[in-house]
Amino acid sequence: MIKIREVLRLQAEGLKQRAIAASVNCSRSTVQECLQRARNVGIGWPPPEEMDELALQSRLYPSKAKEVQAVPGLDFARILQELSRPHVTRRQLWREYRAHNPNGLKYTAFCVNFRRWRKTLGAEATLTLEHVPGDKLLVDYSGDPAQFVDRDSGEIIAAPLFVAVWAFSSKLYSEATKTQDKKDWLEVHANALEAFGCAPAAVVPDNCKTAVIKACRYDPLKNREYCDFAERYTLAILPTRVRKPRDKAGVEGGVLIAQRRILGALRDQVFFSLADLNVAIKSIVADINAELFQKREGSRNSLFEQYERPAAQPLPKRRYEYAQWHDGLRVHPDYHVQVQKGYYSVPYILIGQAMDVRLGARLVEIFQHGVPIAVHIRVERPWQRRTLPAHRPPEHQAYLALGIDKLMEQAAGIGPNTVAVLTKQALSKRHLDETIRGTLGILRLAQDFSRQALEAACGAALRLEIYNYHAVRDLLRQGVHTVPARHLNPPATVGLKHENVRGAAYYAGKKIH
């Protein structure tokens, strides 16, 4: 572009056109035309202060100024708004425009006019973030998955490709997973931190459902399981803004590298398990991290070891294990909470109240308003119960504490007949619970009558060879315990005197036929 201001200044200084042309490095005819145009529009030296070089050019050369022309049927503001919506392209909007304006602009002219209009809005400023070593780990799934083949069915299975990138050193981790659900999402996070050997101050995901329940620019509602993971590693979760990929440009670049280097390298290889696929991915990632940068000194590994690792957090002693939350579960009248075909006890005073349960692979933790209530080992089979004795009411504890041995000790305190009856009864039962029930019933009779009466009735029951609860109870009700023991013995055989009874003399001298 000709330097119009300089031409006008040098001409005012009295230089000839040839000298001016040599000074501004253009032809003399160009200088001559410029001065002629300035005279035509009445501009000399100095020009008005508000006129810069572009303003001068538009006055002297109006045909070169590219102004946005109004085009019938085109609303550039609406086009810009529509382009911000998912899956909307310029070509789609052009097709819609041509449907209403068959003689309208061709696609190229449509795009040129739109670009000119957009330039009038001013260029959008881009903020370059200064990343701090050890501060952020950027995570995302690749849009294109890896693949492996099911050995039995021959089906090709897509395996989502997870990518994690340290913001400062760009060190990369990648792994293929079976799904993108919460369990795989959190377990692959833990695998990444284990591979790095340290944890960042914050993890930066996008607004996927496995990370964020409800997106918000200022205070997004995060998944509870993801918050558990963050608590385990004492880190923060900083989801990006919706539809703002520049917020995690590092991982976007990492995803691109993973797609080109990993998926590209494995495109012709066939794997028959997810484990074999991840072994190959691990080898490629190791090569990527060891390669030297083209525009920076060192490699991803060297920057990570020199700056990132010393600033990062150490890993906790116990690795994170995925656990699922179940909120608002009511305590049953039997002081147990049901979670996925298992029953777990809480203190009986909490019957009817709501509990929050964290169901892990091995442990079940029960909370109320964030306060730990109980911890159980997860059940091994469906509908099994896990009960802590301290959670039972005192009367339940007392009942369960009464084993057969303790009941026999109570019987011994009453007397040997009672022990003998209970022993005989136990031999006739088929199940221990049945024996305990019968034993409790007979011992209860000592409270309804007396210990001495029960002992006497048990003695009578032994002589009559009846050993169950109903027989002993009937003997007590009939007052058997008040009859002297000798009267309960079978009577001895004695001679009876009666007028109708014929004695031995009657048969004397009689002939027996």
Provide an overview of this structure:
- This protein is of the alpha+beta class.
- It folds into 5 domains: 61 residues, no CATH class; 44 residues, no CATH class; 176 residues, Ribonuclease H-like superfamily/Ribonuclease H (Nucleotidyltransferase, domain 5, 2-Layer Sandwich), CATH 3.30.420.10; 71 residues, no CATH class; 87 residues, no CATH class.
- It contains 18 helices and 16 strands.
- The chain is elongated and about 150 Å long.
- The protein starts with a helix and ends in a 36-residue tail after the last helix.
Protein topology:
Layout: H1 4-12, H2 17-24, H3 28-41, H4 53-60, H5 76-83, H6 90-100, H7 107-119, E1 136-141, E2 146-149, E3 156-159, E4 161-166, E5 172-176, H8 182-196, E6 202-204, E7 212-214, E8 221-222, H9 224-232, E9 236-237, H10 249-265, H11 274-290, H12 300-311, E10 323-330, E11 336-338, E12 342-345, E13 354-360, E14 363-368, E15 371-377, E16 384-386, H13 394-401, H14 404-414, H15 416-428, H16 432-448, H17 451-464, H18 469-477
Parallel strand pairs: 1-6, 6-9, 12-16
Antiparallel strand pairs: 1-4, 2-3, 4-5, 7-8, 10-13, 11-12, 13-14, 14-15
Helix pairs in contact: 1-2, 1-3, 2-3, 10-11, 14-15, 14-16, 15-16, 15-17, 16-17, 17-18
